[in-house]
Prior knowledge:
The chain is 29% helix and 19% strand.
Amino acid sequence: MGGDSFPSFRAAAVQAASSFLDREATLDKLESLVGEAARGGAQLVVFSESFVPSFPLWNLVLAPIDQHRFFRALYEQAVSIRSVHTERLADCARREGVHLSVGVTERSRLSMGTLYNTNLFFSPAGELLNRHRKLMPTWAEKLTWGQGDASQLRPVDTELGRIGTLICGENTNTLARYALLARS
């Protein structure tokens, strides 16, 4: 007995470590991994929270007074939106023909010191479809990242369907999940 058929696609959830606090080496690694996933048939390639340039793990193991040099290095290696680094991510998505979701530490051009835990979502044409800043950094993350806003908390239309992103602990935030589901 035949049933209904539904569209499907292949996604790759990349589990890899960043090149610690080295944006260029991490982008090199990302490009290689996206290429491998695309050759394997992935149409959507997803990287973890703050993959570029690294997750601030020191927040969990060092006293705040001992974190200054790491914060400075993270700030220097962070990604600005509409920069050569986001263009490199866009080129990678375009070259490999995939939707690309990647977590970055974002450096704002409007502030000297504020960083955001951000997810960037690119189309296979290399278009930045969405930039979502984590609404509320959790626990020790507050030592590094500023609070985001909900201005980009929305799903985007793609050939694969409507896709929205939440970052780590946001997936346990009932209202954030509802905001995306209600717009899907």
